[in-house]
Write a structure and sequence with these properties.
about 575 residues; six-stranded mixed beta sheet; three-stranded antiparallel beta sheet; 20 helices; alpha/beta
Amino acid sequence: MALLLLGASSLFALGLIAARPITFPDEALYGGAARSLAAGRSPQVAGAPFSVWTYGPIYLLLIAPIYRAAPTLHAAYLAVRGLNALLFTSTAVPIFLVASRSLTRRSASLVALAGVALPASVYTTKLQTESLAYPLTMWVVVSVLNVIEAATRRRQFTLLAFLAIAPFVRFELLVLAPAVLAATFTCGEGSLAARFRRQTVLAAGVIAGGGAMAAAIAVSAARGVSDHHGLSVQYITAPGLLRQFAGLFAALDLSTGIAPFAIFVAVIVASRRASTSSWMDGEVRSLAVVTASLSVGLAIFGSVYLAGIPPRWRPSPPPDRYVFYVLPLILTLFAAWIEGGAPITKPLRFAGLIAATLPVVVGAAEVRKHGFAATSNSLGYMPWMFVRFVTSGATWLVVLAGYCFAVAAALAIASHVHTRRLVRIVSASIVVSTAFAFGYVGLGSLNAARHSPPAGWLDARTDGRVIGVWLRPPTDRQAFALWETQATNRNLYRVYYVTEPDQLGPEAKLEQVSGRKLLDNGAPVNARYALTSSTTPIVGRLVAQRNGLALYKIRPPLRIAAD
């Protein structure tokens, strides 16, 4: 426990490099919904009703008491970040339990440490569900391996309990159930019927749970869901799905440092053979099957979701945010290969070539077709985006290819190169990517501090309800400034637009009548203050002006002043 607290404290302290919300609409949605729950109201964000079922309601219930107890929103925000760090660090426990099944205690401890030091640890700096979803996924893996070892009813019910709550922690984890079922049946002995009989409880539970979830999704769709979250089938195409799928695995490959991913691919290929290397015992095979099943399931879900997002808001591939959960499992397979004497086989050489080629091909395709920039969705590629930023032309791609194929070459001649060098390469890759991830959010926070008001700025200047109003489409900086103000001030309770929303959070449309009067569904807007663009003329007294925003004290009805 002391080590976990120390790790969480270190992670939280490192995260203070980014001490303000910069990821929208996510942080506006989670923070706003948690604030309304803390106040005893139904979930709302900026005064708009909010459906939480696909946004991880368990995470919201976990952080809502913090918002109720904290003296200020900024204090609550930092306290939630502390909880995120603790939750993420706690993943070391199930990772150790998984790794220790096939590794020595020392190696399992190192894998657990690496599992916490991943670039994805940067998600602890955000109000997002990854910090809770990550340890839950690892506990699911522990339970799956227990069921594969002995499918007792108790173990099956324990696994079903984890699977039942997983979609309510993060909706993406809905895929864990079919992925787990596929893995347990694949690793079972005997005929398919015999495997089913041994795992009746698990199979029946997964099928029943899947039916219930499908019905719930259908009901939710019939009622209408938030426009800011979801996908639309009209945007999904076969090429788009393939592009996203390849991008997810390329990001996963690069995040591991190439060599572990190559070992993972080689183990999957070799496990289909009747005779394999001695190091690939039953535990390693089972872990490889579970890892493959989860990887494919998460990648399919991520591909469908990303391909279905409107192109304007779709993050550039390759995003590893949706598949990073399996990284500790791939690192465990890599460590098992090293402990097994690092044998070189034909499948391994072939896998090394694939692992070296995939990130280069995907990176080149994305730059050529769609552009490619560093984002917190794509952490594995982030160092290479920096190389691209400081060099010209395709230099960055040459450097990336040189790195990938150098690692693949070192892997192919591992019998002549001490495996410690491979471990150092992998470790350095993880450390560098993590450093760039935190550096990225740190720079984002510094940029936000330059262009957004400080926390509490609005509450200190108002004594009643404040509305946000966009008469015309705002600039990106103005939109981020307003939503960061919403996340760190209690009085900004609703955001409106007249012509076009900013898409960073829930907004309601105002109707312009009688020339300059603005109405909400035919009724006057009930607020004492209006926060808008500094170029928007509002009838009222100008209270303050900062970072491209202007705060007015108004009297209903809300009106536009003459230019």
